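Reopening this one. Same input as before:
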Amino acid sequence: MGRVVIDVMPKPEILDPQGKAVVGALPRLGFDVFTSVRQGKRFELEVEGDVTPEVLAQARRAAETLLSNPVIEDVVSVREADTAEVQA
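Same output, byte for byte:
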């Protein structure tokens, strides 16, 4: 069984209130090295068999048409999950 990981992020020009809330809270919790936070979405899709270039192409099409809103979000990554991601 294979797994595809898709990352979707808000476009840079789109306001990210969740990211702003997190970046405001980090210093109060002692994390003072971070200056910006953008919050996105991660999807994990399982497939029968291996992850092939055709599977990745279908995953990208799914990400662009269903898993993201192309008006306000960018699909930033479509990749096969590595072993560490699968076990996490």
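So the earlier flakiness isn't reproducible anymore. For the record, The chain has a mean pLDDT of 94.
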